[in-house]
Amino acid sequence: MTTLLPATAALPSADFSQDTWWIVLLKAVFILVFLLLSVLMALWVERRGLGRMQTRPGPNVHGPMGLLQAVGDALKLVLKEDFTIKGADKIVFVLAPFIAAFSSFMVYAVLPFGPAVSIFGVTTPLQLTDIPVAVLYILAITSFGVYGLVLGGWSSNSTYPLLGSVRSSAQVISYELSMGLSLVSVFLVSGSMSTSQIVDAQTQLWWVVALLPAFVVYYISMVGEVNRLPFDLPEAEGELVAGHMVEYTSMKFAWFFLAEYINMFNVSGVAVTLFLGGWRAPWPLSTLGDGVLNTGWWPMLWFVAKVWVVMFTMIWIRGTLLRLRYDQFMKLGWKVLIPVALVWLVLVAVVQGVRQFTDTDLTTMLLWIAGVFAVLMVVLLVWPAGKDDEPAEEAPATRADIVPGTSDFDAFAGGYPVPPMPGQVLPPSPRRARREAAAMAAQTQEKEGHDG
């Protein structure tokens, strides 16, 4: 079992001292090409995978097994007519998709693809750069990217995009809190916020094993952060008709679309780096040949493979679950994820504090904590919701009890606003009554003026 590192690291462990300007440029171009090609492949994998899950072929015409379908979609977006609606704030309307796309490309700059290798005779880490607060940089960039969604919906000067942008702002506040709390436990046990040092701290034990509750909270939060089903409330087609993107066309829409898929790779890469050992080979491959598979260019293969595994789980969730209601979505974030992340953070802090003064084995402490969490989960699952032996009170009138054709319909009778059923009528709107009264008064004055 691994020994947790003390929180004394101040500098990133990756050595970039031999990097030249052309090495940095080469790494930056590689990240750009890697993300663009990965998005094209992700589109094909998602359509093909969802097709198999839903018993349909998926793309199978353009290219072998439909591999060129994503290329055709990209060309269609490039060649479509691009227009800006009349009432939009034109500068912000054009700037918003670029903010979203530009932010999405910046996360992989601090994610390590592998250890130090030789590139044209220069020994350099397979990482563009690293800083002592790399994870805070990632959280800042992901928060900044949401401005693109918010500004895009606001600048459209339309109702549905505005609702989508408001949902985006509420969503990022709610789920970045739980995401950040889940990552703090990684900082505590790794002793650093540098991505390269966090990977080094997982040499013998991946944090997904030692910090499983934190990983579960992070995974749920990351799906909500990138607006994927069942959390795609900012662009819910059934209620907001694509939400913040409904007024965008051609390449401006493509930038939003590209940012969403790159952000999926971003959160997957962060999950791999912080919880799944980063570029290290999975067991038992890591034990073969005295760790030879963790040297050279092999680690890049393990990193990309892990990222694609996490990506596919998000695609799998999209083909499995339905979209949550907005109140359910907020309740999950504020009443479940944030409290669980806080409790787990306190437990990890207690463990780290106890281990500084005692020689307690880490395995023993983790087993005790896992046992306590298991007991709590069982209690919550089997705890009765109420006493079944008490006589049920008379249920209040519901929407089904409303007499069709009457104006006594209560849209909030079930606890959540719903439209009326066929034959039911909503109460008259006070604003509509005032408008009709003002119109009648204007007509009366006009008629009296003609008569006079």
UniProtKB/TrEMBL annotation:
The chain crosses the membrane at residues 20-45, 91-111, 131-151, 172-193, 205-224, 253-276, 296-316, 336-354, 366-383. GO terms for molecular function: NADH dehydrogenase activity; oxidoreductase activity, acting on NAD(P)H, quinone or similar compound as acceptor; quinone binding. NCBIfam families: PRK06076.1-4. It holds the Pfam family NADHdh. GO terms for biological process: aerobic respiration. One of its GO terms (cellular component) is plasma membrane. Residues 417-430 have a biased composition (Pro residues). NDH-1 is composed of 14 different subunits. Subunits NuoA, H, J, K, L, M, N constitute the membrane sector of the complex. The gene is nuoH. Its EC number is 7.1.1.-. Its main location: membrane. Keywords: Cell membrane, Membrane, NAD, Quinone, Translocase, Transmembrane, Transmembrane helix, Ubiquinone. Residues 414-452 are annotated as: Disordered. It is a multi-pass membrane protein. NDH-1 shuttles electrons from NADH, via FMN and iron-sulfur (Fe-S) centers, to quinones in the respiratory chain. The immediate electron acceptor for the enzyme in this species is believed to be ubiquinone. Couples the redox reaction to proton translocation (for every two electrons transferred, four hydrogen ions are translocated across the cytoplasmic membrane), and thus conserves the redox energy in a proton gradient. This subunit may bind ubiquinone. This is NADH-quinone oxidoreductase subunit H. PROSITE patterns: COMPLEX1_ND1_1, COMPLEX1_ND1_2. It comes from Georgenia muralis. It catalyses: a quinone + NADH + 5 H(+)(in) = a quinol + NAD(+) + 4 H(+)(out). Belongs to the complex I subunit 1 family. It is found in: Cell membrane; Membrane.
